Amino acid sequence: MNKRETILVFIFSIYVCCMSYFLYTHQYYNVDMEAYMGLIYKAEYPDMKIEEIHQKVYKELEGKNPNIFGDIPFVPEEEEVAKGENSYYRTLSQNPKAYEEELQLFVVKPFYNFINWAFFKIGFKASTSTFLISIVSYALILILIVCFLIKILKNYTLAIIITFLFSLFKPLLEASRHASADSLSCLLLLLSIYAFTVKKNLFSATIWGMLCVLTRPEYFIFYSFLYVLIFIYRKCLQVKTTTWLISYSYIFLSFFLIQYFNQVSWSTLFMNQFTKVQLYPVSQPDPFDFSAYIHFIKSKILFEFNSSYFPLLLLFIIIVLANDFSIRNKKSQIQALFFAAIYGAVFLRFLIFPLLVNRMMIGFYLLIILSVIYIQNSKVDIFKKSLQHGK
C-alpha cells in the first residue's frame, strides 16, 4: 500500500470503531435475550435450579424492558401474529416452568450460544454477552467486504466508499443492534463463500459453512442448493467428487446433530410461532393443524416478499445478467443458477418458517449485492485458478 491507501485504511478503521461503539450504546431490547441468558447460566451452572436461573435473568433485566415488568400498561388489542403472544413474555417472567420450556426453542443455535457463554466467561454480564457478538460480527463483516472489494475492484477509494454505504444498510444495522444470531451467521456465510471463491480453499469454506449452520440451521437449505450447483459444475470449478462428498457430509452432519438433539419438532414450533402461543411446547404441544398452516402461508407470502428487498434485488440481478448472458456460456449458467439457489433457498425457508424479517435475511442480501458488484465491475476473474492449485 502507498501512503494514500494507508491513510484511507486508517480512516476506515477509525470509522468502524466509532460505529461499533455507537451500536454498543444503542442496542434494542430483544426478548430473545431472556432465553439466551438462561442458556448461558445453564451452561455455566449446570446444577442450578431453573427457579434460580429465572430469578437471576429477570433481576439483571429489571428496568431494561419495563413493559415486561408491568411499568407500561399491557395493551391486549395490539395486533398479534400468534394468539396470546402479547402477554406471553410477561407470563414467562412470572412462570419459571414455562420459561424452562422456552429455552428449548433456542438450543438449536449451539455455536451462537457457545460464543455468548465465552463472552460471559471472559467477564461480561450475561445480558451484554448476548449482543456483543452482533457488534463484533458487524465490524468483521465490514472488514471482509472491504477486503473483497479491494481485491476485485483494485481501487481502495471506491472499495471504502462502497463499504461505507454497506455500513449504513438498514438490515445490517438492525441485525447488529439485536441480541440474535443474525450478524454472526451472516459473517460466517460470507466467510465460507469468500474462502471458496477468493482463497480457493474448500476445506476452510467447509469449516465456516459448518459454523454457519450451527449458528442458524436454516442456512443448510442454501448450502444444499449450493453444493448441488458445485457438483454439476465440478469440472469447471475443478472440485473432485470425493472432496465434494466429504465437504457436504460435514455440512449435513452439522445440521443432523442439531436436529438429533432438538426436543421441539418443526410442527410444534410452527404452531407456537404462528397460530397460538404454547406455554409448554415440549411437554404439552398443540397438535399440528395443516389447514392453519396453508392459511397462514397464503396470507403472508405476498406481503412478506414485497416487504423484503428480494424483489428489488431481483430486478438488478436481471438487468446485470441480461447485459452479457448466453445460455451456452457456462459462466453465465453458473451465475444465473447461483442466484436461483439463493431465491430457491429463501422460498423453501419461507415455507418452513414463513417470516422474512430483513435482519434475518441480511446474509442473502449482502451475498446478492456483492455478487452483482463482482459481475458488473470486477477487474479480476476470481474463478480463473482452480481450487486445488489456487492460492
UniProtKB/TrEMBL annotation:
<feature type="transmembrane region" description="Helical">
    <location>
        <begin position="245"/>
        <end position="262"/>
    </location>
</feature>
<feature type="transmembrane region" description="Helical">
    <location>
        <begin position="6"/>
        <end position="24"/>
    </location>
</feature>
<feature type="transmembrane region" description="Helical">
    <location>
        <begin position="334"/>
        <end position="352"/>
    </location>
</feature>
<keyword id="KW-0812">Transmembrane</keyword>
<keyword id="KW-0472">Membrane</keyword>
<protein>
    <recommendedName>
        <fullName>Glycosyltransferase RgtA/B/C/D-like domain-containing protein</fullName>
    </recommendedName>
</protein>
<feature type="transmembrane region" description="Helical">
    <location>
        <begin position="309"/>
        <end position="327"/>
    </location>
</feature>
<feature type="transmembrane region" description="Helical">
    <location>
        <begin position="358"/>
        <end position="375"/>
    </location>
</feature>
<feature type="transmembrane region" description="Helical">
    <location>
        <begin position="217"/>
        <end position="233"/>
    </location>
</feature>
<keyword id="KW-1133">Transmembrane helix</keyword>
<feature type="transmembrane region" description="Helical">
    <location>
        <begin position="131"/>
        <end position="150"/>
    </location>
</feature>
